[in-house]
Structures are given as structure tokens and as C-alpha cells.
From TrEMBL:
Protein name according to UniProt: NUDIX domain-containing protein
All residue ranges annotated as the Nudix hydrolase domain in the record: 71-205
SUPFAM superfamilies with a match to the protein in the record: Nudix
A GO molecular-function descriptor: hydrolase activity
Family: Belongs to the Nudix hydrolase family.
InterPro entries referenced in this protein's UniProt entry, alphabetically: Nudix_hydrolase (IPR020476), NUDIX_hydrolase-like_dom_sf (IPR015797), NUDIX_hydrolase_CS (IPR020084), NUDIX_hydrolase_dom (IPR000086)
Signal sequence region: none
Classification lineage: Bacteria, Pseudomonadati, Bacteroidota, Bacteroidia, Marinilabiliales
Organism encoding this protein: Maribellus comscasis
Keywords annotated in UniProt: Hydrolase
Xref: Pfam families: NUDIX
Amino acid sequence: MYKVFFNQKLINISTRENITLNKTTIQSTDSFNVFDVRRWFYNFILDNATETVLTHSSPVDFFEVFKSAFIQIDAAGGVVFNGEGKLLFILRNGVWDLPKGKVEEGETTSDAAIREVEEECGITGLQIARELPSTYHVYQSPYKKSKGEWIFKETFWYDMNYSGAQTGVPQQEEGITKIKWFAPAELGEVLENTYENLKQIINLYRV
């Protein structure tokens, strides 16, 4: 099942057989093309449903159709552990976030993830341990002039280890005002003030 977030709304893409949710709207999409996806999405924005399921006989194929209905951007970021087993978070625009950013042309997602953590947190010497599941969300960029230009962003995540002693410097020009290390048992504080699409990553580490 794919999970795509739009603000506080959640779009699940799955086969009908895999549906276990019972408080959501369900829409069959076997006949959907790109224009159908766009039309459906505009209606979804306006309705009161906070969660929905789009069913398809081949979710993998439909996911490609769904993505192509939007401008696609790749981003990458890191879940960074220090020597004490604590996780690194940034306070960006008043919300707890993980360091991440856009993948530049010609850059691998792993290189982009390390660069973004270094730039946003002011630390170096990061080591990637493993790749994590991607997250997906749709939003309207403030830099796009047309109201119809919606962005589909896939963020590639990586587990990283940091063994250095740098305290870090928040990248204030990116709206980052604070850097803080949280123990896994303290992640409830983060979950109270973070983005919906990040919660599935954060919950991998909560104890």
C-alpha cells in the first residue's frame, strides 16, 4: 500500500483485497487516467474526508499514473543517530522536522541526504547505515504562479550515524531555529508537533 499525504489528509493506494480501513471513502481507479486523477484530487481537496482509499488491480502501475498527474520533485533526508543513541531533529518554522531537501541535478539521493543534513544542521562526518522507506506528499508550492501546479514530492530517507562532537548550527535562512537530540523514549514530544507524513518514519524508532 502506498500512502500519500496532502496536509492532514491521507490517500491510500491499494488493491481492494488489502483494505482493512473501515472509516474511509473508497474509490475504484482501474479506469483512471491522468486527467481523472487530477479531477478526483481537486474534489478530494474540497470534501471533508480526512482519509480515502484508491483501489486498483495493480497499485504499482496506478501509482505511476497518480504521480504523473503532478509536477514531480525528489527530496532526500536523514534520521541521524549520535553515539548516545539519540535522534537529531530540527525546529523548522515552529514545527519539529527531520533535515531534508531537494535532490540536485546529477546528485544521488544518498549524497543529497548527507548534504542536506550537513547544511541544515552544521555537522559533518555522517555515515549512512541503511535506506529507509520513502514518504510521499502533495502540496502547492508558493513559488508556482498557477493554482493548478501541484507538486508530488517523494522523499528518500536514510539512517545515518554521527560520532562527532560538533554541536551544530541551525540554518536560519531555511527557517530552522533549533537543533535538538531526542532519545527514542522522548519522541512523543516530537509527534505532538510534526507533519503527518513524518510520523510513519518517526514511529519506526519510538519505544
